[in-house]
Amino acid sequence: MDKIIIEIRAGAGGDEAAIFAGDLARMYTRYAARRGWKFSVIDTNHTSLNGFKSFVAEVQGEGTERALLHESGVHRVQRIPKTEKSGRVHTSTASVAVIPEVEAKEVAVNAGDLEVTFSRAGGPGGQNVNKVETAVRILHRPTGIVVSSRAERSQHANREKAMDVLRAKLHELQRHASSQNTAATRREQIGTGDRSEKIRTYNFPEDRITDHRLGKKFHNIEKVLDGDLDQMIIAFSKIQPKTS
Known about the structure:
Layout: E1 2-10, H1 14-35, E2 38-46, E3 52-61, H2 64-68, E4 73-79, E5 90-100, E6 114-119, H3 127-131, E7 135-140, E8 145-149, H4 155-178, H5 180-190, E9 198-203, E10 208-211, E11 216-219, H6 221-225, H7 230-237
Parallel strand pairs: 4-9
Antiparallel strand pairs: 1-3, 1-5, 2-3, 4-5, 6-7, 7-8, 9-10, 10-11
């Protein structure tokens, strides 16, 4: 059974970007529910307007990697924010990273390279969450990667979740470093999927979603944000690898 880490971060656009990041988080949550996958939140950084500066979750189920891998990249939204009084359309962004989770034995992590800190998780969850330092933050010094987990009720469980995310990120770095030819082929097919690359635009005034890698347009944004991603995922499944 596949396991992936999905990480969403608000980009350009201030509060509206955070709200859009929240929209994407709910979209993937609902899509996972439609597919019968297990969706577990690992860490969140909320804003006051029901949005997220960052959101990290684990998704487990048959075909998760194949279905969601192409969601990696920068998602752009064009709409009138609820806070906009003059009715102007704003453009905001959020980045999505989808990383396959790996077994502990696949990635060697030197404990001496880690800086681990603990804090109170805060938020809902009862007195244990608010009074005990259950939240875990791990810095991997050689790469500068920082991961955290606060959703579990125990420090040990949060540390394990954070380590899962760290191993996935380290494995992704190693994979890219050792497979340049594969990466070049992938760029030819659908683009790099890098966070710096705009992959999709959600245009609310025209009720249109444009996937810039596929060169295709889709409609009914509200239905898509409610978790109906099938049409885009099926479109990617039709891309056949190029042969030399």
